Amino acid sequence: MGPMRYEGTIYRPPSEADAWILQATLGCSHNACTYCAMYRDKAFRVRPLEELLEEVELARRALGSKVEKVFVADGDALVMDLDHWLPLLGALRAAFPRLRRVSCYATAMNLCAKPEAELRRLREAGLALVYVGPESGDPVVLRRIAKGAGVEEHVEASRRARAAGLDVSAIFLLGAGGVERSAEHARGSAALATAMNPRFLAALTLTVVPGTPLAKLEATGRFVLPAPEALLGELRTFVAEARPDDALFRTNHASNYLPLGGRLPRDRERLLAVLDAALQGQVTLRPEWARGL
Question: Disulfide-capable partner of 44 in 27, 39, 89, 276 (CB 3.0 to 4.6 Å)?
Answer without folding.
Answer: 27
